[in-house]
Design brief:
Two copies of one chain form a homodimer. By secondary structure, chain A is of the alpha/beta class. Chain A has helices at residues 19-28, 87-92, 94-111, 150-170, 194-203, 223-235, 255-265, 289-294, 304-319, and strands spanning 9-14, 34-41, 59-63, 75-80, 112-123, 173-179, 182-183, 208-211, 217-219, 221-222, 245-247, 252-254, 271-274. Chain A has a domain at 9-184 and 220-250 and 280-301: NAD(P)-binding Rossmann-like Domain (Rossmann fold), CATH 3.40.50.720. In chain A, strand 1 (9-14), helix 1 (19-28) and strand 2 form a beta-alpha-beta unit. The termini of chain A are far apart. The interface between A and B is large, with 40 and 40 residues. Chains A, B: It is found in: Golgi apparatus membrane; Golgi apparatus, Golgi stack membrane. Chains A, B: This is UDP-glucose 4-epimerase/UDP-glucuronate decarboxylase.
Chain lengths: 330, 330
């Protein structure tokens, strides 16, 4: 009598060529129980460069909209990270944004094995322009469902709704995280959000652009810390809590302070103000009570100053640009 | 030289076999500029009986999910009324509810002529369990996007988002109404909401069931008034306001008062209380400032007492049941 080998986990990852997705794939590939990862990405905002370093034979990329992905297989774990996350990108094609999120989730539900696990990257944008701070997961949010950010915010809310209802009606095993602002290496230079904007502007010798007065606050989570939180939550089997779970840094810093810091370490760049982005939230800060309870010991260890310096280093390597004026301060 | 006749309007109506949809189709067929109405309905909650009286050759029914409807034509007006609206129905199949609303809207956008008009029946449920009363259209709502009502609430919110974003990015002509509680003839006997529940229970000689204490309030709009408001808003060409527009009755009445009234006119039925429905909103009342401004002279003329009596008459005719114990009070 021979004992059949236990077959490994088959994973479907939508949006794996994106900034956060590609880092989470690096972490997934460190798991020895993973047999296969199929990454589906339409390369709208994702970049093949983000996974070019992966040589692991268990990993493959299919260039396709996740909502149209055809496959006979069923997967033990699905990760839904397929969405643009930066306002200029999702505002440019809201139909596609909503299709990727909601249609993508519907398709992935169909591709999930009966006892499979569905992991979804939701967002702090479900809180809209919050009227309470910090935001606990129980806060119902303040989103204008007719506004210019609604294609993103409402498709994330609707996808959460779909998943929680699949859990209620079908018993689907789900894990839903709400990610606050994340930054770090592999952000697109043209991503359009604050940290990467400031760094690419500084590297190009241009003024740093702030939309509005810059007093709007965000909580800046460095990618390594965020991925550690995701891995710990998504991969543990013994958690009975399906989410939603805030994942982020609860140190709230204003956009103008980030600009000033980038300016300082890049040798003094001028800062210029432009018209505010419509319905830009005034504040955003996670209540991490639940995360600390579920993931003991986890926290964002890289402060934003250190994270900004690491991101500058990465952008500089990527652009191959000498930076004689840069003065690193620690 | 001959002058081509002006061809009439081609209309696609999703959910036209439903309670509200079928009444609006009756109104549409009174328009002489309408050349064709294709009604697409999967008969999940709609009933063919609701349109059986229609003999107009311009009207036809296709039994199909709207999100899967295949058609080469493009339509001058589309009406998206395809969704279950009663909690026990939409809670029983949230995937299908969300697919009908959001997938249906995406499909109908594809089928809309370039200069066509998209009319959407949204809902007061986008306000969730509101913290302000009455609710103006600018109120962002208090919806738990992970809760048991979320498949309906969030798919209506997401569909609004999609349509407003199509207007912003593509200039699509949209009209979005938020309907408050509507009642009247052609409600399903097993619809599951208060007025029809009470009437069918009373006709069957059973106690009237109230979920919770019955102090939760609703604004009860009689179908004829609601359809008049819809027709005036949807069909006027000179309105530059795409919505959202509250349509309803702003007389707020508690559920228990409705039960007592039904009991009174039906000759005295006992009322029994059952456990509250999860996340049942405590109150709901439209701020009609905008509707009164846009549709001068329009208001809900049929008070709920009169509407309830008309609805009782209709149910009695439908069931063919003699009702010796009924005492109509005016």
């Amino acid at each position: 009598m021979s004992i059949s080998p236990i077959s490994g986990r088959r994973i479907l990852f939508a949006g794996g060529c994106g900034f956060i997705g590609s880092h989470l794939i690096d972490a997934l590939l460190q798991r020895s129980d993973v047999e296969q990862i199929i990454c589906v990405d339409n390369l709208w905002t994702g970049l093949e460069d983000n996974v070019r370093h992966v040589t692991d034979p268990r990993f493959s990329v299919v260039t396709c909209d996740i909502e149209k992905f055809q496959c006979e297989d069923r997967f033990d774990e699905v990760y839904h990270f397929a969405s643009p996350a930066s306002p200029p990108w999702y505002m440019s094609d809201p139909y596609r944004t909503m299709s990727a999120n909601i249609g993508g989730a519907m398709r992935m539900l169909d591709l999930l094995a009966p006892d499979g696990k569905f992991c979804f990257a939701s967002t702090s944008e479900v809180y809209g322009d919050p009227l309470v701070s910090p935001q606990p997961e129980s806060y119902r949010g303040s989103v204008d469902c007719t506004g210019p950010r609604s294609s993103y915010d409402e498709s994330k809310r609707a996808t959460e709704a779909l998943l929680f209802e699949m859990r209620r009606t079908r018993g689907t095993d789900i894990r839903v995280v709400r990610l606050f602002n994340v930054f770090g290496p592999r952000t697109r230079p043209d991503d359009g959000r604050a940290v990467s904007n400031f760094i690419t502007q500084a590297l190009a010798g241009r003024p740093l652009t702030i939309y509005g007065d810059g007093l709007q606050s965000r909580s800046w989570g460095y990618i390594d810390d965020i991925v550690e939180g995701l891995a710990r939550y998504f991969w543990r089997d013994k958690i009975d809590y399906p989410g939603p779970l805030n994942i982020g840094n609860d140190r709230e810093v204003s956009v103008i302070d980030v600009a000033r810091y980038v300016s300082q370490v890049m040798g003094g760049c001028p800062i210029q103000h432009e018209a505010p982005v419509p319905q830009d939230p005034t504040n955003r800060c996670p209540d991490l009570t639940l995360a600390r309870d579920l993931l003991p010991g986890w926290e964002c260890k890289v402060d934003y100053e250190e994270g900004v310096r690491r991101t500058i280093d990465w952008f500089r390597e990527e652009t191959g640009r000498p930076a004689p004026r840069i003065t690193l301060v620690s």
